[in-house]
C-alpha cells in the first residue's frame, strides 16, 4: 500500500505493538515454543485481517522483526478469530500456513509471488471455494506442482529424491462466488481454459505474462467481464476479434514490456477504432510498450498555444476522437503517443513529463517491477535535472516501490539513486518527520540486503541528506551496525569508505554516553583503528584518515570504556606513527590530540600515558602552531590532567616535571584569549575538576584560561553551561586559595564578571 504522510491511526499503532509483542499481548508460549492465543480472546475480521496483513508487511520490510513459525495457527479457529480479506506475499507463506487457516470463510485471498506454495495449497484453496470472491495467484510459480516419489527408489533417491510434477486435474469447480481472478505469470503447461470453465460469472481476469494463442473461451463471460489484463501476451487478429466481443469491458490492458522478447503484433489505427466502437463502457485502456504500425496522430492547429485538452473531439490520437467521454486512465508508457498534445484521458502513464512518469510508477509498481524500474529511472533524471513539482507523491511512490521489491536489484539501484535527489536540502521543508523516517527505513533495508556497490553508495549518500545524529536516532544501533559492516569489508570502494566514515563520525558526535558505549561495544574503536592502520601502510593521509581520528575523538568523549579500548588496541602506537609520518597535517594533529585529551581525563588510564616518550611528544607539541591554538591547547590539556596526579605519579626521570611545567606556562601565555575555537564542550566537568586543588597551579591556570576563552568568545553557549554546572562557586573558592597564582585569580575574576554581565543583559531583554 502507498506510503502515507498522515499520522498513524490508533488501530495501526495497536496492531504494530501487538505483533511486536505477541507473547505479552494476545498470546502465550506453550512448551516454550508454540504461540497460542489466550483462551478469552475473540477478534473480528477487521482486526484479524489487519494483524495478518501487517505481519506480512513487517516480516518483509523490517529486518529486526522475527517471523513466528506458528503465527498462522493463531487464526485456525473461526470461533475466536475471523479472517476475511488477506494479502500474503513471497517466501513468508508456506503450504502449512494456508493449511492452518483452511476453516476460515475467506472472501479475498491475494497470494503474490508466493514461490514456496505447492499443489498442497491448491487443495487448501478448495476449502475456501464457497466464500471466495477475489483470488490472486500472481507469480505463485510452484502452486501447480506436486512432489511425486518415483517408484523403486534405489540409487535414484539421492540424485532426485522428489520430482516436480504438474497437476493437470485441478479446476475452479465449486468456486461459485469467484468474480475476480489474477493468474499472472502462471506456469506453462496449465490449461487455462479448462481451469476457468466452471466459473459462471467472472468480472475481472488477469492473465499477465501468459501466452495463449486461442482466447475464444473468454466470450463465455462477455456479459460479465469488466476488466481484462493480457500484459505481455503476443496478440493476433483472433485475439483482437475476441476482445471486441467483450462489450462490458471497462478496463482493458494489452500493454507489454517492449524489452522482454520479440512481438509480431503491431497496433494499428483499425484495432484502436474497433475497441472504441465496440467497447462503449471503456474507461481505462493500457497499450504501453506497443509499436504503432501507422501514424494515428492528427497534427493540431493549436499545439503552438500550449493549450492541452482532454476532450475526445480534440484528441491528437485519431481513433480516440470516437470516445463518448475522456478515459479515466490511458497507459502510453514507452510509446510515441504519450508525447502528443491532446490526450483524452484524466490520467496518462508515459515518459513525457513528471506527471506521466509518476502515473506509470503508481500503476505498475506492484506487479511489473521491470517497467517500474525504468519509470523510476526517468523520475531520477527529473529530480536531478529539473525540480520535482509533486515531491510528496514522488517520494511516497519510490518508498512504496523499494519496500515492495526489496530483492529486485534494478529497483534498489534506481530507487536509492532517486531518493538521494528527492531528499536533498532544497526539498527539505516539504517533508514531515514520518516521511523522512520511512525514507531512512527503506535506505537501511537496501543497505542490508545488497552488498552491491551502487546500492551501498546511493544509500550512504542519501543518509548524508539527513540531520545526523538527530534524524537517525530512532534506528541508531542499526545504522551503526550497517556502517561498521561496510567498513569492515576487506575489499572496499574508496568513495563508499569515505562517506561511511563521515557518517560514523557524525553519528557519534553530540550523542549521549550510553549511545557511545553501545557503539563502542559493536567494535567501532577497532574498526577505526584498522582503517587508520591501512592508510598508514599506504602512507596516505586523506579524509578517511582524518575522519577516523575525528570519530575516535568523538566516541571517547567522557566514555572511559572506549578510551580504554583505544589504548588496548595499540592506539598510542598509531598516534606516534601518524605524527611521525605526517608532521605537517594540522587537522590530523588536532583530532589525535583531542582524542588523547579524552583519554587523559580518565584517572585509571593516565599511568599508561606516563612514559618518557609520550611526555616528550606532548611537551614538544606545546609549541605547535597547528590549527591555531588547538594542538597546543590539547597537548596542554593532556599534561594538565597528568600534573594533577601530583609529583609522586611522575614516574620518569626525563623530562623533568618542573621543566614541563615551565613549558606549559609559556604556552598558555602565548595564546590569544580571543581565539575562535574548533572544539565543542558538552560539559565542563573535566575542566572544573582541575580548579579546587593546590597540587598543580599550572593545571588550574589552563582550566581557568579555557573557561575564560570560551565564555568570552561564545557567551551564549558557555555562560549558561558554566553557571548550570556550578563553576562560579568553584572559581570564587579558588580565588581565596594561597597556592593559586595571581594571574590565575585575575582571570577567574574576569570569568565571574563575564557570566554575571551576561545574566544581567539577558534579564533586561526578557522584560
From TrEMBL:
One cellular component GO annotation, for this chain's record? Answer: Cul2-RING ubiquitin ligase complex
Origin, by domain of life? Eukaryota
Task: Provide the Protein zer-1 homolog-like C-terminal domain boundaries.
Answer: 402-756
Segments crossing the lipid bilayer:
none
Which Gene3D superfamilies does the UniProt record give? Leucine-rich Repeat Variant, Ribonuclease Inhibitor
Query: Is DNA-binding tagged as a keyword?
Result: no
List each copy of the Zer-1-like leucine-rich repeats region domain by range: 194-335
Q: Does the keyword Transcription regulation apply?
A: no
Q: Which UniProt keywords apply?
A: Acetylation, Leucine-rich repeat, Repeat, Ubl conjugation pathway
**Which family does the record assign?**
Belongs to the zyg-11 family.
Please give the subunit comment from the record.
Interacts with the ELOC-ELOB/Elongin BC complex. Part of an E3 ubiquitin ligase complex including ZER1, CUL2 and Elongin BC.
Protein known as: Protein zer-1 homolog
Amino acid at each position: 500500500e502507498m506510503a502515507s504522510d498522515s499520522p498513524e491511526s490508533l488501530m495501526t499503532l495497536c496492531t504494530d505493538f501487538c505483533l511486536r509483542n505477541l507473547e505479552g499481548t494476545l498470546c502465550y508460549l506453550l512448551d516454550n515454543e508454540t504461540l497460542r492465543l489466550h483462551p478469552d480472546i475473540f477478534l473480528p475480521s477487521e482486526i484479524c485481517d489487519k494483524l495478518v496483513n501487517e505481519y506480512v508487511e513487517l516480516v518483509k520490510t523490517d529486518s529486526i522483526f522475527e517471523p513466528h513459525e506458528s503465527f498462522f495457527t493463531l487464526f485456525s479457529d473461526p470461533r475466536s478469530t475471523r479472517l476475511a480479506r488477506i494479502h500474503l506475499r513471497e517466501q513468508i507463506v508456506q503450504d502449512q500456513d494456508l493449511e492452518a487457516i483452511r476453516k476460515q470463510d475467506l472472501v479475498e485471498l491475494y497470494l503474490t509471488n508466493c514461490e514456496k506454495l505447492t499443489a498442497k495449497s491448491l487443495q487448501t484453496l478448495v476449502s475456501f471455494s464457497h466464500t471466495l470472491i477475489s483470488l490472486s495467484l500472481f507469480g505463485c510459480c510452484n502452486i501447480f506442482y506436486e512432489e511425486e516419489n518415483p517408484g523403486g527408489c534405489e540409487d535414484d533417491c539421492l540424485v532426485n529424491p522428489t520430482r516436480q510434477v504438474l497437476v493437470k486435474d485441478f479446476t475452479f469447480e465449486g468456486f461459485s462466488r469467484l468474480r475476480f481472478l489474477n493468474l499472472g505469470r502462471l506456469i506453462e503447461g496449465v490449461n487455462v481454459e479448462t481451469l476457468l470453465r466452471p466459473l459462471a460469472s467472472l468480472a475481472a481476469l488477469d492473465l499477465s505474462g501468459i501466452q495463449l494463442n486461442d482466447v475464444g473461451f473468454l466470450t463465455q463471460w462477455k456479459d460479465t467481464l469488466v476488466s481484462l489484463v493480457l500484459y505481455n501476451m503476443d496478440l493476433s487478429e483472433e485475439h483482437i476479434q475476441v476482445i471486441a466481443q467483450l462489450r462490458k469491458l471497462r478496463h482493458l490492458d494489452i500493454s507489454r514490456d517492449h524489452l522482454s522478447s520479440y512481438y509480431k503484433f503491431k497496433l494499428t489505427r483499425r484495432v484502436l477504432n474497433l475497441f472504441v466502437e465496440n467497447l462503449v463502457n471503456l474507461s481505462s485502456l493500457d497499450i504501453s510498450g506497443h509499436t504503432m504500425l501507422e501514424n494515428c496522430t492528427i497534427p493540431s492547429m493549436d499545439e503552438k498555444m500550449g493549450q492541452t485538452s482532454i476532450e475526445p473531439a480534440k484528441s491528437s490520437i485519431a481513433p480516440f476522437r470516437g470516445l463518448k467521454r475522456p478515459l479515466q486512465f490511458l497507459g502510453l508508457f514507452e510509446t510515441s503517443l504519450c508525447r502528443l498534445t491532446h490526450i483524452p484521458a484524466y490520467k496518462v502513464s508515459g515518459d513525457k513529463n513528471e506527471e506521466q512518469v509518476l502515473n506509470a510508477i503508481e500503476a505498475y509498481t506492484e506487479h511489473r517491477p521491470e517497467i517500474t524500474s525504468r519509470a523510476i529511472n526517468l523520475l531520477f533524471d527529473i529530480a536531478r535535472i529539473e525540480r520535482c513539482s509533486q515531491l510528496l507523491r514522488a517520494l511516497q511512490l519510490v518508498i512504496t516501490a523499494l519496500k515492495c521489491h526489496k530483492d529486485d536489484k534494478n529497483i534498489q539501484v534506481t530507487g536509492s539513486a532517486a531518493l538521494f535527489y528527492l531528499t536533498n536540502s532544497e526539498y527539505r521543508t516539504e517533508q514531515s518527520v514520518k516521511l523522512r523516517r520511512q525514507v531512512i527505513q527503506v535506505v537501511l533495508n537496501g543497505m542490508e540486503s545488497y552488498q552491491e556497490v551502487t546500492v551501498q553508495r546511493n544509500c550512504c549518500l542519501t543518509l548524508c541528506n539527513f540531520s545526523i545524529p538527530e534524524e537517525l536516532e530512532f534506528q541508531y544501533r542499526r545504522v551503526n551496525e550497517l556502517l561498521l559492516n561496510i567498513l569492515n569489508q576487506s575489499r572496499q570502494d574508496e568513495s563508499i569508505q569515505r562517506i561511511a566514515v563521515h557518517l560514523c563520525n557524525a553519528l557519534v558526535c553530540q550523542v549521549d554516553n550510553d549511545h557511545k558505549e553501545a557503539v563502542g561495544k559493536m567494535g567501532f574503536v577497532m574498526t577505526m583503528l584498522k582503517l587508520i592502520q591501512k592508510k598508514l601502510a599506504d602512507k596516505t593521509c586523506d579524509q578517511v584518515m582524518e575522519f577516523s581520528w575525528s570519530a575516535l575523538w568523538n566516541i571517547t568523549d567522557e566514555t572511559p570504556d572506549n578510551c580504554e579500548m583505544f589504548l588496548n588496541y595499540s592506539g598510542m602506537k598509531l598516534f606516534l606513527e601518524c605524527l611521525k609520518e605526517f608532521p605537517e597535517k594540522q587537522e590530523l594533529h588536532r583530532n589525535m590530540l583531542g582524542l588523547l585529551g579524552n583519554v587523559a581525563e580518565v584517572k585509571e588510564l593516565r599511568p599508561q600515558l606516563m612514559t618518557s616518550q609520550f611526555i616528550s611528544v606532548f611537551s614538544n607539541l606545546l609549541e605547535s602552531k597547528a590549527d591555531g591554538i588547538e594542538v597546543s591547547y590539547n597537548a596542554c590539556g593532556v599534561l594538565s590532567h597528568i600534573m594533577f596526579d601530583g609529583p609522586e605519579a611522575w614516574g620518569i626521570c626525563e623530562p623533568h616535571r618542573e621543566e614541563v611545567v615551565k613549558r606549559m606556562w609559556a604556552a598558555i601565555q602565548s595564546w590569544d584569549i580571543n581565539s575562535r575555537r574548533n572544539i565543542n564542550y558538552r560539559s565542563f566537568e573535566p575542566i572544573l575538576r582541575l580548579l579546587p586543588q593546590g597540587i598543580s597551579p599550572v593545571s588550574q591556570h589552563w582550566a581557568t584560561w579555557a573557561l575564560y576563552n570560551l565564555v568570552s568568545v561564545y557567551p551564549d553557549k558557555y555562560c549558561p553551561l558554566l553557571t548550570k554546572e556550578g563553576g562560579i562557586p568553584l572559581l570564587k573558592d579558588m580565588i581565596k586559595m594561597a597556592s593559586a597564582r595571581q594571574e590565575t585569580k585575575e582571570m577567574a575574576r574576569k570569568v565571574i564578571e563575564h557570566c554575571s554581565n551576561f545574566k544581567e543583559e539577558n534579564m533586561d531583554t526578557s522584560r
